[in-house]
Design goal:
heterodimer; A: mainly beta; seven-stranded mixed beta sheet; four-stranded antiparallel beta sheet; 0% helix; 51% strand; B: six-stranded mixed beta sheet; globular
């Protein structure tokens, strides 16, 4: 079972470079999320999507853009990478986000270093 | 603003001992609370989800309790094993919106 797949797994960027992180899920989930994880700070929500063609800002959206052109894919873009964006990025997906029984399923993460 | 805290940040116990992990949150208006496990270099795996109307959930050696009025949840792992070594995170889903707010996690080491 593939579940939630993130590519790439690792990436090193120079300040000012751009890149796109891809998240794909095969569970027909409506909701998808992008988080970043920094040491000792838990996970913080960057952007999320409640369905194909829709996106919304999370807790720390600055410096990132997202797109959800297909239901199964959620892309996270960094237009001009900064050292403060060095982090581990996790994608997650779920059925309806409003259900009290909702569980989010996570990918394995992308480790990004910005030099 | 909802804040979630997990203390201690790290914990080491000998094999066989029961583990008690704590999670506290500031706003009691939650939909549910989840406990996750994260292995080094890996993603998060959901362990237990407690709905706001429930007081506990059990799965095998794991038991999670929820006390909304005091803003606390506790994850108990009975008879710990070296394979339980991981970071455990709790997260609350607030009533309004779809967001999960995470604690910083407790890193657990079970020594053989």
């Amino acid at each position: 079972n593939a579940g939630v797949t993130q590519t790439p797994k690792f990436r090193v960027l120079k300040t000012g470079q751009s890149m796109t992180l891809l998240c794909a899920q095969d569970m027909n989930h409506e909701y998808m999320y992008w988080y970043r994880q920094d040491p000792g700070m838990g996970l913080r929500l960057i952007h999320y999507s409640v369905g194909e063609g829709t996106t919304a800002k999370g807790e720390v959206p600055d410096g990132y853009n997202v797109s959800r052109l297909k239901k199964q894919n959620f892309l996270l873009g960094l237009e001009s990478a900064a050292p403060s964006q060095t982090s581990v990025y996790f994608c997650a997906s779920s059925y309806s986000g409003s259900s009290a029984k909702n569980i989010q399923y996570f990918g394995a993460g992308t480790r990004l270093s910005v030099l | 603003k909802q804040e979630v805290t997990q203390i201690p940040a790290a914990l080491s116990v000998p094999e066989g001992e029961n583990l008690v992990l704590n999670c506290s949150f500031t706003d009691s208006a939650i939909y549910n609370l989840q406990w996750f496990r994260q292995d080094p270099g890996k993603g998060l795996t959901s362990l237990l989800l407690i709905q706001s109307s429930q007081r506990e959930q059990t799965s095998g050696r794991l038991n999670a309790s929820l006390d909304k009025s005091s803003g606390r949840s506790t994850l108990y792992i009975a008879a710990s094993q070296p394979g339980d070594s991981a970071t455990y995170l709790c997260a609350v889903k607030i009533t309004a919106g779809n967001k999960l707010t995470f604690g910083g996690g407790t890193r657990v080491l079970v020594k053989p």
